[in-house]
Specification:
The protein is α+β, with helices and mostly antiparallel strands. The protein has 4 domains: 174 residues, Lysozyme (Orthogonal Bundle); 133 residues, no CATH class; 124 residues, Glucose Permease (Domain IIA) (Distorted Sandwich), CATH 2.70.70.10; 120 residues, endopeptidase fold (from Nostoc punctiforme). It is 25% helix and 17% strand. It has 17 helices and 23 strands. A hairpin with a 2-residue loop joins strand 20 and strand 21. Helix 8 packs across helix 9, helix 12 packs across helix 14 and helix 15 crosses helix 16. The longest helix has 24 residues. The two termini are 43 Å apart.
């Protein structure tokens, strides 16, 4: 971490963020990508209690469901530690079969006692067969009378379990009635896995609104094919239910939708899909990114937020994944029981089943992609695409670098910052890759540490904004704190302004990353608009721009990455719309004068929808810019107002971009 102007360690004052140590695990490689055979047999009985988040520890690989759950839930409560899972040795049949986990606590006897108490309390949840601790064995079978049984001396502290707690789950005896593809737990497959794949009931589905509470107010494919969902009109506050079991990968603000929820799920054949719920108000959403939900769960209430003409639910079905390149299909046949259409997007390591799916594939070195996706799933404020843009700025994805200030590795941490304690009590840089050492020079450790630190900063900055201590955009201020230290943000009441370096380095650093972030983001992952490479650019510029109708005007706000500070100015809006419509191929400069130099001028009488229109010309060029809609109107970020559809100004001129 650079933090050259560190003033204070205020991040340590925020509430404990236990979830930051829990590394989100990504999709299992499917058959078309060379998948291996699942370790867990198809007869494993389903567990019904909520799952704990994945840890990223190597000990997870090959574990059966109850042992895997026990490992994850112990880590969620007691933090990361040394652990042993599968041991391919005939002398350890329980370990060989993936039914046993050891938690190595060393001399911390109190921690061992606490873990044992937790395992005993959770015995039914984990299907515990027995627990070994301090040369004794415990079984949850009360009929045996004495539950703790002394064990023979095995010769050393480790074999006698004086320094470790072992939990072993029961052998499989029950047989599932679910079809084989749904009952195989992706969490037990070697390599990266998908949290959504661990859910029971794969393939179930229901309508997102209760019968007789809604009417279909707009069908799929309406508005010239641009309406990529079904609108279900219902009174404001009508409960919205999860249409299927799955994992929440997005929850909150989204262009066009106002606020949305995206849930990734698997069908009965193990195929991936998302359901999307839009136009709710923030106060009417009851789930968060990372939550596991079940079919029929009350996830939100109907609203009329964003580009909406009245209370309704905009509902989408996206084979392949909404954040990961899938394309919407009409959901009505699927809701009625038909099979899910086959997705055409590749399913190899694309981030499905995690918030990290917003990272566009192929934008970072292949071996780093999984780590940026995991780090970008630690908290909703910090995305994988932002961390990738930050990584490019810090090191250019080059290993072995040391800055003049002593910052090291891919994420350019100062060693002292890397070793300092996060709010969860762990160092920021942990052994994320499971090789036994937490190191700034290891790809996974550095990138997960980057995400952990950025998430902690974002939580602190949001708290200061809520308290009125600082003003500004939480993402921009978090980046500034990463570079200059969070104390610099607090002391400045916002963007750092205390020393010359804040102006010569920190502010350009923030601007560079925000401008680059959109290049790393999967198109359409932040809202409704998804570009179609086969369609004309002009109408898509209009469609992309309309996603931000009603967004407030912010001087200097917005750009290719979308709104900043909650809004746009005039060239910020046009830059965002053109970038989205072109699939990231066209990045416009940041002022109306500079945008006037792009493309070719066309007579206003010949202007088409999607052309840019410029006005208020002076000696240096135009002072304002908008998106032509046709019939003498434009989409424009109105100073002092919002993004709106308004008449053209007198004397405007038009230019055509990329056509």
């Amino acid at each position: 971490m650079k933090a050259k102007y560190l003033i204070g360690g205020a991040v340590g004052l925020i509430l404990s963020l236990v979830t930051l140590v829990l590394v989100v695990i990504l999709p299992a490689t499917e058959e078309t990508c060379g998948a291996g055979t699942p370790v867990i047999p198809a007869t494993t009985p389903a567990l019904t209690e909520p799952n704990c988040p994945a840890t990223g520890a190597a000990a997870e690989v090959g574990l059966r469901e109850g042992a895997l759950r026990a490992l994850r839930c112990v880590v969620a409560r007691f933090g990361m530690m040394d652990m042993r899972g599968v041991i391919p040795d005939d002398a350890y049949p329980d370990h060989r079969e993936g039914r046993a986990v050891e938690f190595i606590v060393g001399n911390d006897q109190a921690k061992g006692d606490a873990i044992v108490a937790f395992l005993r309390d959770s015995a039914a949840n984990f299907h515990v067969d027995y627990v070994i601790w301090k040369q004794r064995s415990w079984t949850p079978d009360a009929s045996r009378g004495i539950q703790w049984t002394p064990l023979e001396d095995r010769g050393d502290a480790a074999s006698n379990h004086m320094d470790r707690v072992q939990v072993t789950i029961k052998p499989v005896t029950a047989t599932s009635t679910v079809t084989a593809p749904a009952e195989v737990s992706l969490a037990a497959m070697p390599g990266p896995v998908n949290e959504a794949g661990r859910l029971t009931g794969a393939g179930r589905r229901q309508y997102p609104l209760a019968a007789n509470t809604f009417t279909i107010s707009d069908v799929f494919g309406a508005r010239g094919g641009t309406h990529l969902g079904v609108d279900m009109a219902a009174p404001a506050g009508t409960p919205i239910y999860a249409a299927s079991d799955g994992l929440v990968v997005a929850s909150g603000a989204a262009s066009g939708f106002g606020d949305w929820v995206v849930i990734d799920s698997l069908d009965e054949s193990g195929h991936r899909y998302s359901t999307v719920y839009g136009h709710m108000y923030e106060s009417g959403i009851f789930v968060h990114t990372g939550d596991i939900v079940t079919m029929g769960q009350h996830i939100a209430d109907v609203g009329s937020n964003g580009e909406s003409s009245g209370p309704h639910l905009h509902f989408e079905l996206v084979p392949g994944g909404r954040l990961t390149g899938g394309h919407q299909v009409d959901p009505m046949a699927w809701l009625a029981g038909s099979a899910l259409p086959t997705a055409t997007v590749p399913n190899c390591e694309n981030g499905f089943g995690s918030a990290g799916g917003n990272l566009a594939p192929g934008k970072v070195p292949a071996e780093l992609e999984v780590w940026y996706r995991r780090a970008g799933s630690l908290c909703p404020q910090i995305s994988a695409s932002l961390l990738a843009a930050q990584g490019e700025a810090e090191s250019g994805f080059r290993r072995g670098l040391t800055s003049p200030a002593g910052a090291e590795g891919l994420a350019q941490f100062l060693p002292s910052t890397a070793a300092s304690l996060a709010p969860d009590g762990q160092p920021y840089v942990i052994d994320a890759d499971g090789n036994g050492t937490a190191s700034l020079w290891d790809d996974g450790d550095a990138i997960i540490g980057q995400g952990r630190y950025m998430c902690a900063i974002a939580q602190a900055v949001q708290g200061w904004i809520d308290q009125g201590k600082v003003t500004g955009d939480v993402t921009a201020l978090s980046l500034a704190a990463y570079n200059a230290g969070e104390g610099a943000v607090l002391a400045s009441g916002g963007m750092p302004n205390q020393v010359p370096g804040h102006f010569s380095e920190t502010r350009p650093y923030v601007a560079r990353i925000l401008a680059a972030e959109a290049n790393f983001r999967s198109m359409g992952s932040g809202g409704r608009f998804t570009p179609d490479a086969a369609a004309s650019l002009g109408p898509q510029i209009v469609a992309a721009g309309r996603d931000w109708l009603g967004t407030k005007y912010v001087f200097g706000g917005g750009g290719a990455q979308g709104p900043t500070g909650g809004g746009f100015d005039e060239p910020g809006l046009t830059a965002a719309a053109v970038f989205s419509a072109s699939g990231g191929a066209i990045t416009l400069p940041g002022t109306a004068e500079q945008q006037w130099e792009i493309g070719a001028e066309v007579p206003l009488i010949n202007a088409k929808a999607g052309d840019l229109v410029f006005g208020d010309f002076g000696a240096r060029g135009p002072a304002t810019v908008g998106i032509y809609l046709g019939n003498g109107r434009m989409l424009h970020a109105e100073p002092g107002g919002t993004v709106a559809q308004v008449p053209l100004l007198n004397g405007m001129k038009a230019r055509r971009i990329g056509q």
